[in-house]
Amino acid sequence: MPLAPREQAVELYRSGLNCAQSVAMSLADKVGLDPETVKAVSAPFGGGVARMRSLCGAVTGMLMIIGAAHPEYSKAEIYALSRRAMDLFRERLGSITCADLLKGLNVDSSPTPSPRTEQYYAERPCGRIIETAVDITVEFCGGETAAK
User: Percent helix, strand, coil in the chain (nearest 5)?
Assistant: First the structure.
């Protein structure tokens, strides 16, 4: 039985992918996108965009899929929908910024990724953050995204 998108996203993250890749790839095929292409285009968005600790990678992955799910929307419509999704993310987790979400952890903003170890995964809230982003994405894509 295939994994639900939120479980698939966490599994992708634990396999070494960044937050943006994990969220976007877990739902890519549900909105007609090739997961490998999504993996490549979302690669720069981990660590709060290239590890600059700005907009959370899970949020960027969420927005990529929301955009792909609504290609008929005008610029104003997709901006409004995206803002509602980000507001909901902020309401649930307190921030949309990587630095804020990882506050109190020993993280830096160098371009060199941290080694992915069990300690890395144990101390970061990224799994829960990724699950939240996937849940919101599914909500904003009409719910059927999870069932396809």
Answer: 65, 0, 35
pLDDT in tens, 82-118: 999 999 999 999 999 999 999 999 898 999 998 999 9
Q: Are 78 and 67 in contact (CB under 8 A)?
A: yes
Domain encompassing residue 70 = 5-147
Per-residue CA distances from 3 to 69, 95, 107 (Å): 20, 28, 30
Tell me how many domains the chain contains: 1
pTM of the model: 0.93
**pLDDT, tens digit, 9 for 90 and up, residues 35-74:** 999 999 999 999 999 999 999 999 999 999 999 999 999 9
Cβ 110 vs Cβ 134: under 8 Å: no
Name the DSSP letter for residue 78.
H
The span from the CA of 88 to the CA of 30, in Å, is: 22
Beta bridge partners of 55: 97
Helices and strands (H and E) in the chain: how many: 9, 0
Residue 141 near residue 31, CB atoms below 8 Å: yes
